[in-house]
Amino acid sequence: MTKSRETFNKKEKEKLRQKKKQEKVDKKEARKSSEKSTDFEDMIAYVDEFGNITSTPPDPTKKKKEIDVDSIEIGVSKAVETEDDGGGRKGKVTFFNDSKGYGFIKDEQTQESIFVHVNGCIDQIQENDKVTFETEKTAKGLSAIEVKLVEK
């Protein structure tokens, strides 16, 4: 007599597989029988005048506001170039490292920090000095050139 090739473990695995298959079929039937409306009108969503999503359509009798299409800006507005008055920009040296030869100047008008290198300086500068300067665009951003001390 030979032993049956089906072991207890194999029988249990087959039962689990059949049970999962039956559960999957039951879930599929439950989804089909659930009374979800697939009507087009139920799928529509409306946006009110404040940008909120609502299920009610807008009132056509309501007076609509006229909007100038040209006044709508998408994205970040472009920076306006400041006109140089011939003397350049003014600022204050917030940091300067003599040993490394670089520092930063805080512009008085825009309050932005601008990089300065010792090669772009006409006069010797130190921290807290008031200076005038020109700017140039570099690969890493704005850089101050022709930096001069302001006489007090």
Automatic annotation (TrEMBL):
Any Pfam family: CSD
Record GO terms (molecular function): nucleic acid binding
Coiled coil location: none
Residues covered by region (Disordered): 1-38
One annotated Gene Ontology cellular component of this protein: cytosol
Positions with biased composition (Basic and acidic residues): 1-15, 23-38
CSD domain ranges (all copies): 88-149
Protein name: Cold shock protein
